C-alpha cells in the first residue's frame, strides 16, 4: 500500500461516484418530466388561497438618518414570491445599496432591517427615503 | 506495551473497542525502540512516510482518511460484488506481505480460507463502531467474512498511521476489481508492494529510499514513480471542482471532501428517486390500472438499500450539502427536506444581494431569511429559503450562484 495506489483508487472511486450521480440524476429527470402535469395541478391549488388571505399585512416603513449618506431603515410588508428581488432591483435602480442586511419572514410578513447607502455620494434624507420606500412597496 | 497484556481480542466475536483504541493510539505515537522489540514486520508501512518531498510528510494521515471515505458505504452496485471473490483476489495479489505478518502473529487459527489478516481494530479510532465490520462492507452484513474482523490485534502491530492505510486497502471496495484489473497501474502498485516485501524480509532497514537494492536502476525507477505520482495528483486535481491550491496535501484534502459530497449526493438522489417512484406508484394504484403491479408499491415503501438497514429511503429525510469555491467566492449549499440554506462569502460585494435574489427566484426558491454584511475585507451572507416547487439540486444552486457572483466581478470596477 502506497500513495500511488491510494491516489489511483481515489481517482477511480471519484469517477465511479460521478457516474452514479449522473445516472441517478438522469433517472430523476426522466421521472420528473412525466410527473410535471401532476405538479402543475397541485400548484394551481396552492396559489389561490394566498390571494384570498383575510389578514392583510400593512406595509410599514421606518427610516432614521445615521450620518453622511447612510440611513437605517426598517420595513415590513406582505410576503409574496419575488417581492424581495423586486425591492432590490428598485433600490439598485435608484442608486442605493443595502449594507448589513437582515431579512426575516414569518407568518406571511417580511421584515427587512438594513443600512441604506447611496452609491452616488449624495446626502440622503430620512423622510424622502421613507416616501420612496413606501412607493416601492406599493409597486412590487 | 500494555496491548499484549490486555485481554486478547482474537476471533470475530470479541469486542474490546476501548482498550484497543487506547492501545492503538498509544502505539501510533509509540517509540520506535519499542517497535523494534516486537516484529520486523512493523517496518512495513514506514516506507511511504519517508518518501520524497517534505510536503508529503503529513500525506499518509490524509491518505488514511481518504481511504476511510472510500470504504465507508461504497456505491450501491459495488455492494453487490461478491466479497469472497474480492478478498480472494486481493489476497492473491498481496499474499506475501501479509503472509509474513501471519507467520509472526499467532491466534488467527479461526481464519478459514485465506492467510489474509483481519482488519485491525485501530479503525475504531476513526469513526467506526466496535462491531462495525458491516460498515466497511455494508453489503456483507450477512456474509460476514471473519477475515475482516475489526477487533483483531493486528492493528497493534502496525506502527505509524500508514499501516492503517495498508490495512484499509484490503477493505477497499475497488481493490479487488478495479485496481488489479488495470494492467498499467498494477505494475506501479505491484512494485510498491514488492518493495514493502523486501523491507519485511530485511527486518526493517532504516534506509528506505534508494538504498534498498543499491543498483543503478533504482533512481531511474524512483524518477519514473515520482513523475507518475505527479501526473496522478494532477489528474485527481482536475476531477475535483474545488481545487484552489495546487499542493498535494490540499489536493488530497479537497478530494476527501469531494468524495464525501458525492456520496451524500448519491444518497440524496436515491431518496428522491425512491420517493418519486413510491408517489407515482401509489397514484397509479389508486387509479387501479390493470397493468399496475401492486407488489411494486409495497416493495417500494419497504425497499431498504442493503447495508443501510435503518434507512428506508422513501420515508427518509432528504439532506445534502456541498461547497464550491472559486477564486474570490465560496458557496456552501445545504438542503434539508424542503429548505435550502446558502452561505456565501465573497471578497467584493457588487450588490450580490440582488444577484442572489434573482438566482433564487429563478430556481423557484422562496427567500425566508437573509443576514449578512461586511466583515473585515470580505462579505458574508446567509440565505435561507424554501423550495416551492420543482426539484432543485444543491449542485445546481451552487453553480448558478457562483456564476452569478463571479460573472459580475468582471463587470464591476476593481475597487468598490
TrEMBL record, chain A:
Source species, please? Punica granatum (Pomegranate)
Molecular function terms, GO-annotated: DNA-binding transcription factor activity; protein dimerization activity; sequence-specific DNA binding
Cellular location(s): Nucleus
Q: Name one GO cellular component term.
A: nucleus
- InterPro entries in UniProt: HLH_DNA-bd_sf, TF_AMS/ICE1/BHLH6-like
Q: What is its main location?
A: nucleus
| Protein name as annotated | Transcription factor DYT1
UniProt entry keywords in alphabetical sequence: Nucleus, Transcription, Transcription regulation
Domain of life of the organism in this record?
Eukaryota
Which N-terminal residues, if any, form the signal peptide?
Answer: none
From TrEMBL, chain B:
Q: Which InterPro entries match?
A: bHLH91-like, bHLH_dom, HLH_DNA-bd_sf, MYC1-like_bHLH
Task: Tell me if Transcription is a UniProt keyword of this record.
Answer: yes
Q: Cross-referenced Gene3D superfamilies, in alphabetical order?
A: Helix-loop-helix DNA-binding domain (4.10.280.10)
The UniProt entry's GO biological process terms, in alphabetical order, are:
anther wall tapetum development; regulation of DNA-templated transcription
Keywords linked to the UniProt accession: Nucleus, Transcription, Transcription regulation
One Pfam entry name? HLH
Annotated coiled-coil positions are none
Entry's Gene Ontology cellular component terms: nucleus
The record's listing under SMART domains reads: HLH (SM00353)
Q: Where in the cell is it found?
A: Nucleus
Recall the GO molecular function terms of this protein's record: protein dimerization activity
Q: What is this protein called?
A: Uncharacterized protein
